[in-house]
């Protein structure tokens, strides 16, 4: 077939899934006996304390239960069970922004996690079901903390270090966290920055549930200590025993919460389970990245996002792999940093985001030539569609024209990969995530469940439950149902709708066309326009605001706001207003949600019932023709007035 890149046949001989026949065989197995397929995998892959007695319970759909009555512990799955065969193998290879390095073996990880688990239990009174918020940078202690929380059966909620005090506070309050773990700070672009003051500010109002704060030292910067509340990790942890029996957990007990943006309201606490989550994390690591025993695998995401959870910490460790963790940014001290690290650690699988590829292509196209990248075998991308230009550069300059690229489509809610090539079994194509993984029923359908014909956009849905799926939204089961199981039905039953549009191409491959809701994707970060609008609306002189994503050559999308102001008096330059608005956004959400551009308009296009017609606003910012009928607008002339501003 045209436009396709085929895997190397020699390499494929050593792969786990060696060709398209093997892939199709697995797909057929899952089609023939869905529960049997997953049940067999779960029995093989998980070190159960007690095996489950039912694969899938659908009686309370969409609150699906997987591997019922199974007993396990995820930290045991990730550490203890490897000690016999891999005790001296590197579990985590860490590199700090300043070039400091640390290698942690599985045995060392075992002791560190156990000591930390004991500390959480004994000193901080954390027990099964308690929530622990982790607001930490990319250092090994963050992974240790996550695993320690899992070991004692508590629930972690990692909050990305780029979120502001207000955003952190919202998450602490929603989860009713008992403990917050943080660091003094970390390093970025070669310089120290601080995290602890953000925690102090977050806790200054309304976080009654928080009893204590545990502080890991990273950069030794001066920070405020609240006597009786704040405790230093290093000092305390050394006194704890290196043995801590793993808590016996049920398959369906929550493992963690991770907050993500939706199209309306506050971020939602996506709740993941124990068994189903770890099973899919592990098996996708094995099949999608084709990681082998002596490989070194590196995912550049931040642990604060789902990619970091599943593909830096849980997936790699569950399969007993070596995972690289890097504290810094890709362009410090120059745009060759990542390539230098690939050479030094002889990285075999490299997983990153299209926005980073575009940035490195743009700022350092020649950098990869300076390094030996021949250790690489599989490349991956995630988070947003990748444009063919960036794909080809990645394929040729980083992969040397010999590494398959796995373009993995998935979401915080799906827990792990859903649609992706298998590196040595799927011919790949720039810009396509290709096929659903075996056992995953991802389909492009219309609202009634009819499969879309080739080339026509439809809803990307998952029409059968899968083990690593979101279990609920923390504290809001109704919102869970409404957010994911309201838009599409198949065979009369509601199915999971991802919020993404997609279409089949001439090969039957899935092409993701982007969100269909009011969610935008800036540098692979998911943001609700409603959230940003709420912040902008807090500016004194803003009467009305509508935010849309504007195509951006590096970030994918940038934040663009249409603003109706209250008063022309004292109105300075637009840049002044933009600065003030960004001040509010940075305070309420964080720098990642900053607005790139604003335009002051006389009004917004609204229907007679008052709904903003965002499609018109999206078309205008993209310079596209407006195809909708504007005559139903409350004031049709407003469209021309807005267009005149461009
Ligand atoms: C949204 C999920 C999955 C971890 C990182 C983001 C977009 C994700 C792809 C891809 C095109 C993609 C979708 C999805 N997305 N992967 N390979 N191709 N788009 O997780 O923050 O939950 O965002 O990211 O729009 O819905 P997230």
What's the SSE blueprint?
Elements: H1 9-12, H2 20-32, H3 34-45, E1 54-57, E2 65-68, E3 71-72, H4 74-78, H5 83-86, E4 90-95, E5 101-105, H6 106-122, E6 131-135, H7 140-151, E7 155-158, H8 165-175, E8 179-183, E9 185-188, E10 191-194, H9 196-203, E11 212-216, E12 230-232, H10 233-237, E13 249-250, E14 254-260, E15 268-273, H11 275-288, E16 296-299, H12 306-319, E17 322-326, H13 337-345, E18 349-352, H14 354-364, E19 378-382, H15 388-398, E20 405-408, E21 442-445, E22 458-462, E23 472-473, H16 477-484, E24 488-490, E25 493-504, E26 510-515, E27 519-522, E28 525-528, H17 529-536, E29 542-552, E30 556-565, H18 574-588, E31 595-600, H19 614-622, H20 637-643
Parallel strand pairs: 4-17, 6-7, 6-8, 7-14, 8-11, 11-12, 16-17, 16-18, 18-19, 19-20, 30-31
Antiparallel strand pairs: 1-2, 3-13, 4-5, 9-10, 14-15, 15-23, 21-22, 22-25, 24-25, 25-26, 27-28, 29-30
Helix pairs in contact: 2-3, 6-7, 8-9, 11-12, 14-15
Bound molecules: 5'-O-[(S)-butoxy(hydroxy)phosphoryl]adenosine (WT7).
Task: Specify the CATH homologous superfamily of the largest domain.
Answer: ANL, N-terminal domain
CATH architectural designation of the largest domain: 3-Layer(aba) Sandwich
Q: What is the class of the largest domain in the CATH system?
A: Alpha Beta
Helix content: 25-40%
Task: Tell me the fraction of residues in β-strands, as a range.
Answer: 15-25%
Intertermini distance: 43 Å
Structural class: alpha/beta
Bound molecule types: 5'-O-[(S)-butoxy(hydroxy)phosphoryl]adenosine
Widest sheet: strand ordering: 12-11-8-6-7-14-15-23
What would the average pLDDT be, to the nearest integer? 96
Radius of gyration: 24 Å
The structural domain count equals: 3
């Amino acid at each position: 077939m045209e436009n396709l890149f085929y895997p190397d046949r020699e390499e494929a001989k050593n792969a786990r899934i060696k060709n398209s026949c093997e892939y199709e065989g697995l797909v057929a197995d899952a089609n023939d006996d869905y529960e049997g397929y997953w049940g067999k995998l779960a029995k093989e892959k998980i070190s159960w304390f007690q095996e489950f007695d039912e694969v899938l319970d659908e009686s309370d759909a969409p609150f699906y239960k997987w591997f019922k009555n199974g007993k396990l512990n995820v930290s045991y799955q990730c550490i203890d069970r490897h000690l016999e065969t891999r005790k001296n193998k590197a579990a985590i290879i860490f590199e700090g922004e300043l070039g400091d390095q640390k290698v942690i073996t599985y045995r060392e990880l075992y002791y560190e996690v156990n000591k930390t688990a004991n500390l959480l239990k004994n000193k901080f009174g954390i027990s099964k079901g308690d929530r622990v918020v982790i607001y930490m940078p990319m250092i090994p202690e963050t992974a240790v903390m996550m695993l320690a929380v899992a070991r004692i059966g508590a629930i972690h909620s990692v909050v990305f270090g780029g979120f502001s005090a207000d955003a952190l506070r919202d998450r602490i309050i929603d989860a009713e966290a008992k403990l917050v773990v943080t660091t003094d700070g970390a390093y970025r672009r070669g310089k120290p920055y601080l995290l602890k003051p953000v925690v102090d500010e977050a806790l200054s109002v309304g976080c009654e549930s928080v009893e204590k704060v545990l502080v890991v030292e990273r950069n030794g910067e001066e920070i405020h200590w609240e006597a009786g509340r704040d405790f230093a990790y290093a000092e305390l942890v050394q006194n704890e025993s290196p043995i801590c029996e793993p808590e016996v957990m049920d398959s369906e007990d929550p493992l963690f919460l991770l907050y993500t943006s939706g199209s309306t309201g506050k971020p939602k606490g996506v709740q993941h389970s124990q068994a189903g989550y770890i099973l899919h994390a592990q098996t996708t690591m094995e099949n999608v990245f084709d990681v082998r025993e002596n490989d070194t695998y590196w995912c550049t995401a931040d642990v604060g996002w789902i990619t970091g959870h599943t593909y830096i910490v849980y997936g790699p460790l569950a399969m007993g792999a070596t995972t690289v963790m890097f504290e810094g940014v890709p362009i410090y001290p120059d745009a060759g940093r990542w390539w230098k690290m690939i050479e030094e650690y002889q990285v075999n699988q490299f997983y990153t985001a299209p926005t980073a590829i575009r940035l490195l292509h743009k700022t350092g196209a020649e950098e990869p030539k300076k390094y030996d990248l021949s250790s690489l075998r599989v490349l991956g991308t995630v988070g947003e569609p990748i444009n063919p230009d960036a794909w080809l550069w990645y394929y040729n300059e980083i992969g040397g024209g010999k590494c398959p690229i796995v373009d993995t489509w998935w979401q915080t809610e799906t827990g792990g990969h859903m649609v992706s090539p298998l590196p040595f079994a799927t011919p790949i194509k720039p810009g396509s995530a290709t096929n659903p993984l075996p056992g995953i029923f991802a389909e492009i359908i219309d609202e009634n469940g009819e499969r879309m014909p080739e080339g026509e956009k439809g809803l990307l849905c998952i029409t059968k439950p899968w083990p690593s799926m979101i279990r609920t939204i923390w504290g809001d089961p109704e919102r869970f149902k409404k957010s994911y199981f309201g838009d599409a039905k198949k065979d009369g039953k509601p199915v999971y709708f991802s919020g993404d549009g997609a279409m089949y191409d001439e090969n039957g491959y899935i092409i993701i066309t982007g969100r269909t809701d009011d969610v935008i994707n800036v540098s692979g970060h998911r943001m609700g326009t409603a959230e940003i609008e709420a912040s902008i609306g807090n500016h004194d002189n803003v009467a009305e605001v509508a935010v849309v994503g504007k195509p951006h050559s590096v970030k994918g999308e940038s934040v663009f706001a249409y603003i109706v102001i209250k008063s022309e008096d004292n109105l300075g330059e637009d840049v002044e207003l933009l600065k003030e608005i960004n001040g509010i956004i940075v305070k309420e959400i964080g720098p990642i949600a900053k607005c790139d551009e604003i335009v002051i308009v006389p009004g917004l296009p609204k229907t007679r019932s008052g709904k903003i017609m965002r499609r018109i606003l999206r078309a205008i910012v993209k310079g596209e023709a407006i195809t909708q009928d504007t005559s139903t607008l409350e004031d049709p002339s407003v469209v021309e007035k807005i267009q005149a501003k461009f």
